[in-house]
Amino acid sequence: MRAALSLARRGLGNVWPNPAVGCVIVKDGLVAGRGWTQPGGRPHAETEALRRAGPAAKGATAYVTLEPCAHHGETPPCAEALIDAGVSRVVSAIRDPDARVDGGGLERLREAGISVEQGCCGQMAAELNAGYLLARTQSRPLFTLKSATSIDGRIALASGESKWITGEDSRAAAHQMRLDHDATLVGIGTVLADDPQLTCRLPGVQAGRQARIVLDSNLRTPLDCNLVQGAPEVPLWIITADGKSEAELTPYEERGTKVIQAPRPGSGPGVDPGSAAEALAARGLTRVLIEGGAGIAASFLKAGLADRLVVFRGPTAMGGDALAQYGPLGLEEMTRASGFELIGVEAVGKDVKETYAAPAGGAATN
Fold first, then answer.
1. Angstrom distance (rounded) from CA 274 to CA 284
2. Which of 210, 238, 242 is closest to 225 using CA atoms?
3. Contact 291/198 with Cβ under 8 angstroms?
4. Active site amino acids
5. Is the pLDDT of residue 256 over 70?
6. Which of 4, 85, 141, 331 has the largest CB neighbor count within 10 A?
7. DSSP conformation class of 218
8. Distance between CA 266 and CA 314 in Å, rounded?
9. Cβ neighbours around 283 below 10 Å, total
10. pLDDT score for 266
11. Contact assessment for residue 197 and residue 227, using Cβ atoms and an 8 Å cutoff
12. Distance from first CA to last CA of the chain, Å, rounded?
């Protein structure tokens, strides 16, 4: 199952709206076939593993990181494929909460006389597909807030200068995170200040299905910025406050940019994070990386939509006059501060990468 999970990770960021699934078929102690969900979500992991196993699948055990699907979609159900191949046992890490499956795949296997086990490496599988599980149960993607900070939690000098707080190794790791998520999101302030590309530019890596997203309530994204200019090749979605006219939308749409209108918050400027989350999930996204800036990060923290925090800390102190990692949260009591669990610490070159998760797999709330 650990090998199947490793295979499943290959699909992260490239298979939405489907889950990233891995499958290993074992017979007589030997691996007969391996598979993982292919780009775009098809073919499924089980289909790929069965194809590679061929006749050896008969009487074998299939280890699958998510319950095999039981519904007819663009492809036949994976449960039926396993039955037709003659496997004798299926070990599933976790159940699929999709209403079209939700236990139906395992039940169909049992009805066919196949031995079924569930729960092997379940916690690891749930973490791997946390975004897919959230999309199916809460109609929103998983959000990861990524920051590059000094030792004292600062992301830029008072002048706005921030190059470079962390080293090349951390920047490469951040590009890998873009590749592992369905989309990368920033606010309009970051676009105006940095004119980013938000693509993965690691050597030898080709652009996948990852989208770029800008929260821009007043539709100020320059038509000549890198994001808009690159929209025909790499998807760009701008989420703006509702009420925009066709004349305002057309220049962006003519340049290949998708503009999504969403309500403003109940009070204050900007786009409501909850509405943005619903809009992104409705379009199939399961994992979104938030890179900036401090105001956008604070808005998702306040909305209880921050599921993971990843902080790259460089070995530099910048002082209290530098820009803080997160914008104001308006807290008056410590009991209302968001709590997170430290789940990983590792050295990345001269920097330190810290990873935090919201409690019990859900976003921390104020």
1. 16
2. 238
3. yes
4. 46
5. yes
6. 141
7. T
8. 37
9. 16
10. 66
11. yes
12. 37
Strand segments, DSSP code E, in 46-120 are: 61-64, 89-92, 115-118
346: β partners: 353
Provide φ and ψ at 175, rounded to 5°. Answer: -65, -35
- Sheet bearing 22-27, strands edge to edge: 30-36, 22-27, 61-64, 89-92, 115-118
Q: Is the pLDDT of residue 268 over 70?
A: no
- Please tell me the distance from the alpha carbon of residue 160 to that of residue 139, in angstroms, as a whole number: 36
Q: Is the pLDDT of residue 362 over 60?
A: no
Mark 66-104 as b/e (b = at least 16 C-beta within 10 Å).
Answer: bbbbbeeeeeebbbbbbbebebebbbbbbbbbbeebeeb
Mean pLDDT of 97-109: 93
Q: What is the pLDDT of residue 207?
A: 67
CA distance 226 to 232: 11
- pLDDT band (50, 70, 90) for residue 331: confident
Q: Which residue type occupies 296?
A: I
Are 305 and 275 within 8 A, CB to CB? no
Per-residue tokens: 135: 């999309």
Q: Which tens digit of pLDDT belongs to each residue from 169-228?
A: 999 999 999 999 999 999 999 999 889 999 988 888 776 789 999 999 999 999 999 999
Give the dihedral of Cα atoms 93, 94, 96, 102; nearest 10 deg: 110
Tokens of 230: 């690159």
DSSP 258-291: EEEEEPPPSSSSS--HHHHHHHHHHTT--EEEEE
Query: Hey, what amino acid is at 243?
Result: G
Q: Could you tell me the pTM of the whole model? A: 0.92
Angle (CA) 8-356-2 rounded to 5° is: 25
**Cβ contact 214:227 at 8 Å:** yes
